[in-house]
UniProtKB/TrEMBL annotation:
Membrane-spanning ranges: 30-50, 56-78, 90-112, 215-234, 246-265, 271-295
GO molecular function term, any single one: peptidase activity
Entry keyword set: Membrane, Transmembrane, Transmembrane helix
Protein name in the entry: RsiW-degrading membrane proteinase PrsW (M82 family)
């Protein structure tokens, strides 16, 4: 039986394509072959760079690789945790990561950065190029190389890359892939300094520096840039917002440029370097927070539409649906619990509501076994404590 809320749910699921699968193999899609070509080129170039070091510097290369994998797994887990609503298929996430680690890093960025560095040296002299090359090359070359990745994903999965949040999260994985490759490059470079006479010391120092700087690095830059691309292009789920799009594209370029140029800007003054670094980091994190604030209303609107019929049927309450649609709302809802036990139950109910959202997306709104089980779990959780509305009235 059709009702306004069920119709709204169907429209939301159709618009967002939540729950749909990603099929990587698309032989009739020219972008698929472009992806394979550029990523393959990146793998070959990366191999050409690292394979000559596998002998004498083999241990350093192995340690840097292990650290890089562990770091990527930790950051990847965090990004998946932040993906609050229906998560992107893992195959699409891996595709994003591979683009950043291979095509963007080795096929495009390494070549273009080297060419620009040579050009700057010829035009302005080697001293100037040494000071400003990184800040006036990497932000434009690398952000563009990574940003192309979200366009590639749009072409490979047009129904799955729909909202600014999709741009933020997939962009983070593109940036994570790039960061993993770059960290490996810098770590090995540290080990090879001084002809490898102190490769362990150089390796440890490089790894420590990269781990520290990765807090404000490519995942953040690319998340902002790719969200900006989504706003610029527009999708069925995200109306075009040109001003927002341009702002989110320009900000990471500026932040990246300042980050890479802080020594030159500060003129070697240690205190000024720290001030610039701190200010740049605060600005970048603030921009990321604003990007999520901008993206949240669209996502929250779709969450409410999908879960609205559950309110009508008594499975969830209005407050629970509101809490499921945002981190701040969830904290407020959980904090309002009368005691620790109820706050714990409320937290589990919200998690159950999000699981129900995921199951409804996969079943396209139908009552599948997983949907029925998710509803039963919410009912079981609610029975462990007094109903929320009774507590509110008492």
């Amino acid at each position: 039986m059709s009702t306004p809320t069920l119709d709204a749910r169907a429209r939301a699921l159709e618009t967002t394509a939540w729950g749909e699968k990603f099929h990587f193999f698309q032989p009739r899609n020219i972008v698929f072959w472009m992806f394979l070509w550029l990523c393959g080129t990146g793998v070959v170039k990366g191999w050409q760079m690292f394979s000559p070091l596998s002998g004498y510097f083999g241990r350093a290369l192995l340690i840097a690789s292990v650290v890089g994998v562990v770091s990527a797994l930790v950051w990847g887990w965090w990004f998946r945790f932040v993906d609050r609503y229906e998560r992107q298929p893992i195959s699409l996430v891996i595709t994003a990561f591979v683009w950043g680690a291979t095509a963007a890093a080795f096929a495009i960025a390494v070549t273009a950065n080297t060419a620009l560095g040579s050009l700057y040296g010829k035009l302005f002299g080697q001293v100037w190029a040494q000071d400003w090359h990184a800040g006036l090359s990497a932000p434009f070359v690398e952000e563009t190389a990574k940003g192309v990745g979200i366009v590639v994903l749009l072409a490979l999965a047009p129904r799955l890359v729909r909202t600014a949040t999709d741009g933020l999260l997939l962009g983070a994985f593109i940036g994570l892939g790039f960061q993993t490759s770059e960290d490996l490059l810098y770590s090995v470079a540290g080990a090879t300094e001084g002809f490898g006479a102190h490769q362990t010391d150089g390796l440890v120092e490089s790894i420590a520096t990269r781990i520290y700087s990765d807090i404000i690095s490519h995942p953040l830059f690319t998340a902002l840039f790719c969200a900006g691309v989504i706003y610029l292009i527009g999708t069925p789920a995200q109306p075009r917002r040109i001003a927002r799009g341009l702002a989110l594209i320009v900000v990471p370029v500026v932040v990246h440029g300042v980050w890479d140029s802080m020594l030159a800007i500060a003129g070697g003054t240690g205190l000024l370097v720290f001030v610039i670094m701190l200010g740049d980091a605060i600005f970048a994190l603030t921009a990321l927070w604003i990007a999520f604030v901008w993206a949240h209303p669209r996502e929250a609107h779709f969450v409410r539409d999908v879960l609205a019929p559950e309110v009508e049927s008594g499975v969830l309450t209005d407050d629970e649906v509101t809490a499921a649609a945002g981190w701040r709302q969830q904290r407020q809802y959980v904090k309002a619990g009368a005691d620790r036990a109820e706050r714990k139950t409320r937290r589990h109910i919200i998690r159950g509501a999000l699981d129900l959202l995921s199951d409804l997306a996969i079943s396209k709104g139908h009552d599948s076994d997983d949907v029925l089980q998710a509803r039963a779990e919410i009912t079981r959780l609610r029975s462990k404590t007094a109903p929320v509305h009774v507590l509110a009235e008492s």
